[in-house]
Design goal:
This protein is of the alpha/beta class. The protein folds into two domains: 269 residues, Rossmann fold, CATH 3.40.50.1820; 94 residues. The protein is 37% helix and 18% strand. It contains 13 helices and nine strands. The protein has a nine-stranded mixed beta sheet with strand order 1-2-3-5-4-6-7-8-9, with helices on both faces. Helix 4 packs across helix 5, helix 7 packs across helix 8 and helix 7 crosses helix 9. The longest helix is centred in the middle third of the chain and has 18 residues. It is globular. 50% of the residues are buried.
C-alpha cells in the first residue's frame, strides 16, 4: 500500500517535508505550496495546494489536502464567492489525489471547473482524508467527507482574504454523495465562520447499502461496468479502514484479497481496466457472504447511507438516465424521498450517462447557484 508521504513531496517538487501534527482547530492551515501543472485547471490563476487540519474516521484528527483555484482578475467587493468542489472517485493511493495528479476524467472535469471559474467563482477542491496525506482513505464515509469539505473551505477562507465567506458545495459521483452529506451538515460543521448557501450533486450514489448487503460468492456471474467492480473494492477497503474489527479480508478469496490490496495501490482508471482485462466478476472476490456480518444493513447505512432529512438550504440533484456507474432508479428514489420529506430539493434528469451529465447539468445548475448567491 503506497501511503508514502515522501512520494507526495517528490511529485509536488517540495522536497521531503515534516508533516505538521493535527490541531484541535479544524480548518487550520498547516502548509501552502504551488500546485503541479497536471493538477491545475485551465483558466485558473495563482492556484495552490494547502494542507489543513480536519477529521477522519471515528472522529480522529488528521491533516488533509485541498487545491484552491482562483479566477483571473481582481476579486469583487467582499471577495470571490466559493465553490467547494467535491470530486469523484480517483482511487485510494496517495498519488491518485486530485491536488497531485488532477482528475481521472480530465476533459470532463476541467471543462466543468473552467465554466465555474469563468462565472467568477473561486474553487476549493478537498482531496478527502487519506488521499495525498498519511492514513487510509475511508471511501464513501459521508461524515468524514463532509468534515473534509467544510474544513477545506474554512482553511481556504482563513488563508486568502480574497475569498468570501459565502459558499456552495458542488460534487459528482463520490463527490455527489459527499456534496449531499455536506449539504446536510454544512451549517453545523461550518458554524458562524462560514455562510453556507446550498448544494449541487450529480451522479449521486444513493441507497447502495441496499445492494451491498447481498455481496458474496452467490452474486450471479454477470459482467458489470468495469468501474462498478473497482467501486466495490474501494468500498471494501473503506470498511476495512473504518471497521477493522470486521476483518473484511476473511470474507474474500485469495484472489479477492489480492485485488483488495491492489485497489489501495492503483488509481481508478487503470484498476477498472485491469479488472476488465482479467474478466473479474464480483462474486469471484468473495469466499463467504457479507450478510454474515451482524446488522450489516444498519452498519452500511450509518457509513454511507445518504441523510433523508435535515437539509436547511436548497439542494440540486442532477441524474443521467443512462448512468450505469450509480444505480439510477435508486438516485431518483432518493430525490422522491427528499421531496416527500419536504426537503428543499430540486431534481433534474438528463438523457446522458455518468460522465455526460456533469456538463449537461450546467444549463440548470449555473442559474441555480447564481440565485443562491443573490
Amino acid at each position: 500500500m503506497r501511503k508514502l508521504w515522501f512520494t507526495v513531496a517528490v511529485i509536488c517538487g517540495l522536497g521531503l517535508p515534516q508533516l505538521p501534527a493535527a490541531s484541535a482547530d479544524p480548518g487550520t492551515v498547516t502548509s501552502v505550496a504551488p500546485l503541479a501543472a497536471v493538477a491545475t485547471p485551465p483558466g485558473s490563476v495563482d492556484s495552490s495546494r494547502i494542507l489543513y487540519d480536519t477529521t477522519t474516521t471515528n472522529g480522529a484528527p488528521t491533516v488533509a489536502s485541498a487545491a484552491v483555484y482562483f479566477p483571473p482578475g481582481d476579486a469583487p467587493a467582499g471577495g470571490w464567492p466559493v465553490i467547494a468542489w467535491a470530486h469523484g472517485t480517483v482511487g485510494l493511493a496517495d498519488d491518485c489525489a486530485y491536488s497531485i495528479a488532477g482528475p481521472s476524467a480530465v476533459e470532463r472535469d476541467w471543462a466543468y471547473l473552467a465554466t465555474w471559474l469563468r462565472q467568477g467563482y473561486a474553487i476549493v477542491a478537498a482531496d478527502y482524508a487519506g488521499l495525498g496525506t498519511p492514513g487510509d482513505h475511508p471511501y464513501l464515509d459521508g461524515l468524514v467527507e463532509a468534515h473534509n469539505v467544510v474544513d477545506a473551505v474554512k482553511a481556504a477562507t482563513r488563508q486568502y482574504s480574497s475569498l468570501a465567506r459565502k459558499w456552495v458545495v458542488v460534487g459528482q459521483s463520490q463527490g455527489g454523495g459527499a456534496a449531499v452529506f455536506t449539504a446536510r451538515y454544512a451549517t453545523e460543521f461550518g458554524g458562524p465562520e462560514l455562510d453556507y448557501r446550498g448544494a449541487v450533486g450529480t451522479g449521486v450514489p444513493a441507497y447502495i447499502e441496499d445492494i451491498l448487503q447481498f455481496l458474496g460468492p452467490q452474486v450471479p456471474p454477470i459482467t458489470l461496468n468495469q468501474h462498478s467492480t473497482a467501486y466495490v473494492l474501494y468500498i471494501l477497503n473503506g470498511l476495512r479502514t473504518t471497521y477493522p474489527e470486521l476483518d473484511i479480508e476473511s470474507f474474500l478469496t485469495d484472489s479477492g484479497r489480492a485485488w483488495l490490496t491492489r485497489a489501495r495501490e492503483v488509481c481508478v482508471t487503470p484498476l477498472a481496466e485491469a479488472l476488465g482485462a482479467d474478466g473479474v466478476l464480483v462474486g469471484d472476490l468473495f469466499a463467504r457472504p457479507l450478510a454474515q456480518i451482524p446488522n450489516l444493513h444498519g452498519l452500511l447505512s450509518g457509513y454511507l447511507g445518504l441523510p433523508e432529512s435535515g437539509y436547511d438550504r436548497p439542494l440540486f440533484l442532477g441524474q443521467g438516465l443512462r448512468d450505469t456507474d450509480v444505480i439510477t432508479p435508486e438516485t431518483l428514489r432518493f430525490g422522491a424521498v427528499l421531496a416527500a420529506n419536504r426537503q428543499p430539493v430540486t431534481l433534474h434528469v438528463y438523457p446522458d450517462d455518468h460522465d455526460g451529465t456533469v456538463n449537461a447539468s450546467l444549463s440548470d445548475s449555473l442559474p441555480f447557484v447564481r440565485d443562491l448567491f443573490a
